[in-house]
Write a structure and sequence with these properties.
The relative contact order is 0.35. Strands 1, 2, 3, 4 and 5 form a five-stranded mixed β-sheet that branches. The chain has one domain (about 1-55, about 60-75). About 15% of the residues lie in helices and about 35% in strands. It is mainly β.
Amino acid sequence: MTPVGTALARLRKQCLDVQYASLPGTGRPGTVSRAVIPLAGHPDSAVVLPSDGGPGGPGDTVLVDPARPATLVVAR
């Protein structure tokens, strides 16, 4: 799991706006269990990190949509 501050800094470095969602039981409270990154040119698609089997994964390069916020899913 990644601390929220670390994940936020990485996304902001890429000039992405960030919103938050929380789920119970997804890890240590206050840590990011996954990040949902919107894909450019695909309004209904996103990359979920760690990978959920969808588009994008470790080592892949994807074009993100900076007009839509990324979502950090935080454990509570």
